[in-house]
Amino acid sequence: MKPILESINVAVNTSIRIKTYTNDDHCESAGWHIHPEYELVYVKNGSGVLNISSKKRMYSDGILVFLAGSIPHADFGNHDYPDNLEVVIQFKKDFLEEKLKMFPELGKVKELIKKSKQVLIFDPGLHKALSHDFKKFVYLDNQGKLINLLSILDRISREDSYETLFDTFTTDSFKSNDVKRLEEIFEYVNLNYAKDLAIGEISSKLGLTPNSFCRFFKKMTQSTFTNFVNEFRINKALEFFNESNASIAEVMFRCGFNDPSYFSRQFKKYQGTSPNSYLKAKYRGLLI
Length: 288
Prior knowledge:
CATH architecture of the largest domain: Sandwich
Largest sheet: 6 strands, antiparallel
CATH class of the largest domain: Mainly Beta
Strand content: 15-25%
Order of helices and strands: EEEEEEEEHHEHHHEHHHHHHH
Strand order of the largest sheet: 2-8-4-7-9-10
Helix content: 40-55%
Number of domains: 2
Shape: globular
Structural class: alpha+beta
Distance between the termini: 38 Å
CATH topology of the largest domain: Jelly Rolls
Number of strands: 10
């Protein structure tokens, strides 16, 4: 079965994506999927199965696993216990190549990240020792999250307490031309969502006709390109609302919408409420 390419939306003004999930607010299943981002996953407790590429591995009391991008895998979490917690940390290749390279002191961390191509599964002792650090993410701001992540990477880079799922692994073998093409589309949207995203322009960049592009995108994502872009923009709108006191009009334009009525309809479609109601709840302190 071919893996579906998952679009990872790294938030505004951040270089990493960190999501925490409980049994009440669990990670929505992505099924068998692939994405170019590196992924560090902490599961507090419970049992499950790691399905990564051609390998399967059982775990019985939570798991801490680190894998490079472009390795097909299924979801890692479970719902055995009501107090379970899953923390999913994802970052792009440029986090390593453009940001971490500026600090020669982080040599061990950079080596650890390179080893993640073999998929690293850390032993139970280290998993337990780092539980407090992973639980902290939910309370931290963006700066705190980055510092906490670097602290975790520093700790695990100094340990040999892990097993590798693969002796060697060539990630490009899983990146078909279709997956590479879809990655180009996602990156194009990520860089240009505030502009007018004309299907004619992006399809031309990929060497497709507009009709072929639309069929290709629907086949690969089970969504139309328009719906994908609208949902992406609404997620950006949430980030802008939550990080500033920007007005609805300001956020609308920053996200690439030009029609207030259309923006309001799309916001309600994906968030279940209007932008105005969302902001009223925010200022009343009703949003978590």
